[in-house]
Amino acid sequence: MFEKLLSLFRPKKYRREIIVNVEKLETRVAVMEKGRLEEYMVEHPDDERLVGCIFRGRVQNLQDDLQAAFVDIGLKKNAFLHYWDMTPDCDAILEETDEEENTDPKNGGKKTNASKSKRKPPRLSNEEIHKRYPEGSEITVMVTKGPISTKGPRVTTNLSIAGRYLVMMPGQTLRGVSKKVGDAQERQRLKKILDRLMIPEDVGVIARTASVGAKPKVIARDMRNLIESWRELQGNIKNLRVPCCVYREPGLVEQVVRDWLTEDIDAIVIDDKKTFDEMREVTARISRRARNKIRLHEGPVDAFEQYGVERQLADAFQRKVPLKSGGYLVIDETEALIAVDVNTGHYKVKDGKAKEKEGKNLQEESILQVNLEAVEEVARQLRLRNIGGLVVLDLIDMKSRKHRKQVYQALKGFLKRDRARTNVQEISDLGLLEMSRQRKAESLLSMLSMPCPYCSGHGVVKTPLAVSIELQRKLRSLLKRAEADKKPFVPKIIVAPAVMQRLRTEDSQLLAELQSEFSTRLTFVSELHRHPESFSILDSESGQVLYSSSTSHQHA
Q1: Domain span(s) for CATH 3.30.420.40 in the chain
Q2: Higher-confidence residue: 384 or 348?
Q3: Around Cβ 443, how many Cβ atoms within 10 Å?
Q4: What pLDDT is stored for residue 87 in this prediction?
Q5: 207, 212, 345, 545: which could join 190 in a potential S-S bond, CB 3.0 to 4.6 Å?
Q6: Contact 47, 297 (CB under 8 A)
Q7: What pLDDT is stored for residue 350 in this prediction?
């Protein structure tokens, strides 16, 4: 009885829910499935969300050797615009549309063959680009990738504006349905709705997966909102001074409503009253039923704590990620690529399997199970950490070609839910799997951390032995120089505690011999807060610093 009463006060476990934590310095969004963290997004009020924003810029220079233009869009660094992104092309959009057929408004809404609609227009030659976009000319571009490290944003002239149910593409004529919509009848229904919409001739439209089951009137309302945004954008182009932003993507919370509030979401829980009211107002424009999914979290504990998000975040972003079976992943993010090492660790064979398989077969089956579990977790980690670029998985070696194929297909299956584009190569004979993932912005690690001031980002420091060797080498050099110049020199050496410990023990005899050889007296001082690699050599008589490893600058 008591347990039943207690359950009434516990948060209901939904199949799929979104938890929003709003604070003054940060807004966080977590997508949970059966209590497990699957997606994670962060926004800071001072950070400018650039991806999806449209700018009116000015061409600064054209570099044929790089096949790229650099465009001033008003940011610190010029935007990078590849020549192939200056050619009208809807191939990138077509990747998410019907592979079989689309409708052409210029052909009376009749179906067109996909292979014809997907045919690329001829690439502009260098001469044509210089003629169409000379240096100093104005150009309208959309950001496809935000600034990363020292690189500026990447842009394209192929514009798109996302709505709740539709994506509008100014300058295109394509009208199709996302290929993620699998039901044939629903595809035909959506195509008929698109054919009836009042769409300007120079605008293409794609029905998103959120449009499944949506009524024609709400899709038409979404189209009107998009056309209104497009007209406002055109007005900004005419009235604002170049360079300028003419269309800005909504903030994280509004994007959650637009892109994530689908039929399979059971609830969106928000722990901030103001954001809760704003989200309900935005959602009400979509549907009243969707508005009822927005819930306000109240109580002494914030939403992330109560729903177990904080604990899962702490585990998810470690370098070493444990697997349920006892294995683990080691994830290292470098500037060039992401390396993921898969290890069996203390793998536990599930009950019954040990009886069915013995010896070598059991070992191969165990390796397969660890690799399968590993690729599932890798797909999740890529989403959580927002990792993009080249990713290399060092899987546990599998002798069976069948097993390698099984793991490869499993990873491709787990990546289907990823909103970023991915390209996966088959597992090599060395057990390496190479893949790429679309990178639109910095990873969460890059966004929320900085290089360690202690190790300068290396992750390691020199051992006391290495520092002692370097110290003795430099000390001997200074003593020899003083002896040659016939100057009295009584060294005073300042070191870190760990190095001092070694000098007093393993290296004490060597230091005694050095002291005897040069007929001097060595004085060592330990500084508690000194960097373990740092040491300084002073003249104890004058107090002059003759050498300091922290600056690697010799004063004498």
Answers
A1: 2-47+258-311
A2: 384
A3: 18
A4: 74
A5: 207
A6: no
A7: 57
